[in-house]
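Quick one:
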Amino acid sequence: MPTSRRANARLTRRTFIASSAAAGTALVATPIFAPAVHAAKTLKLGYVSPQSGPLAAFAEADNFVIANFLETVKGGIKIGDASYPVEVIVKESQSNPSRASDVAGDLILSSKVDLMLVASTPETTNPVSTRCELEEVPCISTVAPWQPYFIGRQANPGDPGSWKPFNYTYHFFWGLEDVIAVFTNMWGQLATNQSVGGLFPNDGDGNAWGDKQVGFPPVLDKLGYKLTDPGRYQNLTDNFTAQISAFKRESCEIVTGVVIPPDFTTFWNQANQQGFKPKIASVGKALLFPVALEALGKNGNNLSSEVWWTPTHPFKSSLTGKSAKEIADAYTQATKKQWTQPIGFVHALFEVAVDVLKRSGDKGEGKSVAAAIAATNLDTIVGHLQWGNTKLPPFAQKNIAKTPLVGGQWRLHDGSKYEIIITDNQTAPQIPVAGKMEAIA
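Output:
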């Protein structure tokens, strides 16, 4: 065990520090303590997410989720015969991987967290998880496809023979195989020339999605699609003329990729200005949030995206017993904002955390908590979570738990409000569809 953890190895129990304010106010890093329930040591949960910068939309619901979590566990968490108070210490990455690693280090070395939680894109999950693995601190992450999370953290991502599982870091979400299936299933509902333009940035997601071995290219080729990939571009670019010109030249009737929200707004506005209007645009990351569609005005109608969680998902919280709809409705009532997909997955992080801590015994050591994560078998607000899935490649089975994925299309209602309609559920039939794909007008 590293020296930084050795001094705390004999502490029996520590708890989570609540650094979340009431819903609607900004999260801060200063801890707010839940009421003391037991005189023993406190269990601490660290939480890292991108609450500012270009990825901030992913963290919009953090405030709400953490405030409700603290209310749920205000009586403490019972482990064995004792109940322990809860602390959540929140740090934000500012959408910057280097800062994500730095604040994770602060949570580990200064706050001495027992369990790290992290969400939202490889730019956040990977540096935090890597720091935790190095320091032997158990970590649970989500909201990043598993390939860029797992492969991107390997010493040699280009050599599958060298890939190794991790001992302290565990992840739950879907994979590229799922989003490719969802997108192509949606595309199959409409007649097109099967010419696809790809938007893949030079970041963890873009490099994975555009990879010629594990990404979109080999699967699209096998299915008879022709992919035009103009190459990697830098996030926050202000000119997509090169990409648009390439797509027009190849008569692309479909656009896909994984784009941060501000970049897709720039691309789509410029595409409309330059006379490029495909029949289908299925884009990951950028089209997850209503605010991104609202920024496009009427030009956002019938854009499509992967759908990980909605109020119609047939799951309940293991913490509160509330349904997906009840949680989404509560968010809207508390914040006056439309629900967003990360609500479910951030809530699930805390569901798993409580379940793990209850099962981890009274050792207060990272190994016992990590073992409890690996043994998770839990029904959550995002579906059943269990690591060790034999349907995954052997190298990923230890560290990855899969969640269901479907596809949907944004429809404009009342001239200003967008709602996402699930249009394909072939990959997860338990999640109901509400409509069929329509071509972009």
